[in-house]
Design a protein that fits this description.
mainly alpha, two-stranded antiparallel ribbon
Length: 329
């Protein structure tokens, strides 16, 4: 099982780097999102506490369906096909919860458009990765959008699911991913879901509390290897991490701003860092910083944790599911 556990993490990383994500129409997170939408259409809004309780129960239902489906697949493959089928399935299902190469896939076309002087196309593509109005942004603020998005999502898209995979196997990765997805869809700052989204949003904040802060250590190591400003990384992180509305996103954003020696700015929102606004070159620098951070974290933290702990938790839950099904049959 030791070799198999190592293979799961290494194979998941290779799948991400070589193949990236599956098409959206067949992406399992899309299926989970469809379930969330179906629940939204069926829940009647009846007041603050009713909506909050229904939001909590909805999260429990979504996470239970996701966990049961994922771990039933891996359990059946291990039981009836063999350990290497289990390795491949576990790697693929883990890969679904994190994304390293997607940063470059989303930002490189924007960088290319800016290089070619096509600001309108860059603005249009940037609107797909941020919620702010990009129609009047200049090259520097478009670049800032990219750098901010890459830095912030280093935690939500890599460090958090990777840590919980290491600790609790696929169950941990999907518990986090469901909370993060429902926060994005129902977050309590959106008026329509002011109460329904409270539980998943706050659970997402809770699960990201540790990972957003420990990400600094791995961003610092990557910055050191890339000869970036490690001292600035810690200085700006400690000073500016509280400037964003989210209690967690400010940490990796401020860390990246300090390491890159730039200022990230959301007009009428926040201004993080001491240097100039980002240039097109800084988009590439931020990508290299976060990609190296992600690889380091997956190999130095997720892999040993999964070998020592996470795989045991995953196997235990898989066996429990098989026992339950066997009892029912």
């Amino acid at each position: 099982m030791l070799t198999a556990a190592v293979a799961v993490i290494v194979l998941a990383l290779l799948i991400d780097l070589v193949l990236s994500d599956p098409p959206n129409r067949i992406h399992p997170l899309r299926w989970i999102g469809n379930l969330v939408d179906a629940l939204d259409r069926r829940i009647s809004r009846k007041g603050v506490w009713n909506d909050r309780i229904m939001g909590m129960l909805s999260y429990v239902l979504v996470a239970t369906v996701a966990l049961f489906s994922v771990l039933l697949v891996t359990a059946l493959l291990r039981e009836h096909v063999g350990i290497w089928a289990w390795v491949i399935a576990s790697a693929l299902l883990f890969k679904i919860t994190f994304a390293v190469s997607s940063f470059r896939r989303h930002c490189s076309p924007i960088r290319k458009a800016l290089d070619e002087g096509d600001l309108e196309s860059a603005r249009s593509m940037t609107q797909m990765i941020v919620s702010r109005d990009t129609s009047c942004l200049g090259t520097d603020h478009v670049s800032s959008c990219c750098v901010e998005t890459v830095a912030e999502n280093s935690v939500d898209s890599v460090v958090s699911p990777a840590l919980y995979m290491g600790l609790f196997g696929l169950a941990g990765a999907y518990v986090f991913r469901c909370a993060n997805l429902m926060d994005a869809m129902w977050g309590y700052r959106k008026e329509k879901f002011a109460n329904l989204g409270t539980f998943p949003a706050r659970l997402d904040d809770l699960l990201g509390f540790i990972t957003s802060r420990i990400s600094l250590l791995f961003l610092a190591l990557a910055a050191l290897l890339l000869r970036m400003d490690v001292r600035g990384l810690f200085r700006i992180s400690l000073r500016d991490h509280s400037l964003t509305p989210s209690p967690n996103s400010g940490w990796p954003m401020a860390a990246a701003a300090g390491a890159l020696g730039i200022t990230m700015e959301k007009p009428a929102g926040y201004r993080i860092g001491d240097g100039p606004l980002p240039t097109v070159i800084d988009i590439e620098r931020s990508l290299r910083l976060v990609e190296l951070t992600s690889v380091i974290f997956l190999l130095a933290v997720t892999l040993p944790l999964y070998v020592l702990l996470g795989v045991q938790v995953q196997i235990f839950i898989e066996d429990s599911i098989l026992a339950i099904i066997g009892g029912l049959l």
